[in-house]
Amino acid sequence: MGKILLRGRVCYMKTKTIKIKLPSWVEPFFKGAREFYTTLEDRMDFVIELSRKNIEHDSGGPFAAAVFNSKDGSLIAVGVNMVTSCGLSIAHAEIIALMQAQSVLKSFDLGAPGLPCCELVSSTAPCAMCLGAVPWSGVASLVCGARDEDARAVGFDEGSKRRDWVKELEIRDIAVTCDVLRSKAAAVLREYVGKGGIVYNGGLQTRK
User: 88, 55, 68: which is closest to 198 by C-alpha?
Assistant: First the structure.
């Protein structure tokens, strides 16, 4: 039991186990996937479809990600945005995909010796939080579909990011490829908002 100070009073808080489980529809979708996705377009097309299914099933925001073996294109793990369904602000698609991959490969470092060369493919360029997680994850490369401005255009607040964030990752020897099927990925963002999806992170709008 932990002790915290709240409004000048000492309060006791029971520790709680937090479990993040992918929506039930993801497993059959994952099992139905191809064994190999040999091109970046193939990998992005898969991830975009994953983001669209997340909208259809109303299980989170319009974002998806997956970790692939960049050498042979085999699929290692997937993630979808579950902010609204889990009630957790950190449940972004990239974070979930990285956690799943680390669990599958049994390593907190996806760049550890003996592991496949891991590539994170995201339907939209990572927000400030997910961008910070990329170098710590150990992935060797990042592939993005829609741009940061596409997400902002429909109301999402992507946080404060350096303009040269691509260069910063490349300095760390993380290869970055942007705009892969960008228009198709951005269309999912517009579809989500058009259907009345919750723009759960709208910057100052959330504080009014």
Answer: 55
